[in-house]
Amino acid sequence: MTTPTLSAAGTPVTAPARSVSPRAHTARTLPVFVLSALLATGQMYVPIPLFTAMKADWNAGSVVMTWIISAFAFGYAGGFVLFGPLSDRYGHRKVLMTGMLAAAVVTLLTGLAFSAPGAVGLRLVQGLVVGSIPPAIMAYVATRIAPAHRAVVTMSIATSFLAATVIAQIVSQAVVAAFPWRTMFLASALVFAVLAVALRRVMVDDAPAGRELPLRHSYAAIPAVFRVVSLVPMLIAGAMSMAVMVGIYTGLELTGVVHSSGELLTLRAGALPVMLMLPLLAVPLARLSKHGQIVLGVLVAASAVVAATFEGSHLVVLTVLLAVMVGGLGVIAPAVLQSAGELGGESRAAAMSVAMFSFYVGATAGPLVAAAAAPHGFTALAWTLAGLLIAALAMTVVGLVLQRHLHAELPAGA
Known about the structure:
By secondary structure, this protein is an all-alpha fold. It folds into two domains: 177 residues, Growth Hormone, Chain: A, CATH 1.20.1250.20; 196 residues, Growth Hormone, Chain: A, CATH 1.20.1250.20. 77% of the residues lie in helices and 2% in strands. The protein contains 17 helices and two strands. It has a two-stranded antiparallel ribbon. α3 packs parallel to α6, α6 packs across α16 and α14 packs antiparallel against α17. The longest helix has 32 residues. The radius of gyration is 21 Å and the shape is globular. The N terminus is likely disordered.
């Protein structure tokens, strides 16, 4: 039996496979992973409903407060690349549990911060340690979840990353309405610790692997990921899809289509039913290739965005169209993650780290795109984002052509 891995040139080759790893119990593992994904990614959005209370407490300006979000985002993206290879080297279970416990400590300290600059520094560290969690989860799924369940589990966790955008803000808004803003961080720290204990119970032990090589070999897989020519266009497509996801909601406020925070929350919450349905689509979607899934997701999302250019002034219609758009985008991320895991081989955590890093690079670009297009109105914004989705479609086609070309060059039986 052979398994694909990354060669020094970055192309998939075959190597002897290890003995089959013990499988995790899907029904016990999935709920804990979903909650961990929600909590980890949700930390980026938790402060948004708390801004008014935090500004009043610290007597801070709006510019400093925006760094409460940006600092976490920078650290979060960096954590993917820093800890993904360590997950492959030292074990997904060990890195995940350590990351959860470290996140509990730093989140607690963030909630105790007595100045905005101090909180910004702690948020950077918080993002960095929380960034160790998603790569370890996804790599564990790729190695320890039964193949028959893998698509559903991957879709469920990827959906949790998306749903955290909405759920974290809803919970945070409810908490700050009744308690001091620090309560949200203190409660998050407690949940991190509780989930660390739960993960210890549901995850199987790590198998020894890769410790005989110097540490630099663990990080050498990261540049090798970018040399997998058929994967790079898919990473770009994934980044563009996340830029659209963040850009549309940012632009709604900038263009004045949405007149209150309550309306914006309604638009976000309207996508939750679609997010919850996405895991149910994992099995039928598995009949398509990964490229086919991305194409389908892009076409659905682009159609909804284009339709929104004509109906952007009607809140109910716009809510439905945004939910459809989120459904399309929600198909893309799992397909890209699974492709990265498959092509990454023995370095699957590093490959998935790069994939998730690309998502958050796109998410960072989304507000910049929205800020550039918003002065020209919502219609201009929607067409700009539709253009990004068309570019993502082109990248997917390029990736498919490159993959077919690579397969055509492989010798028979390889």
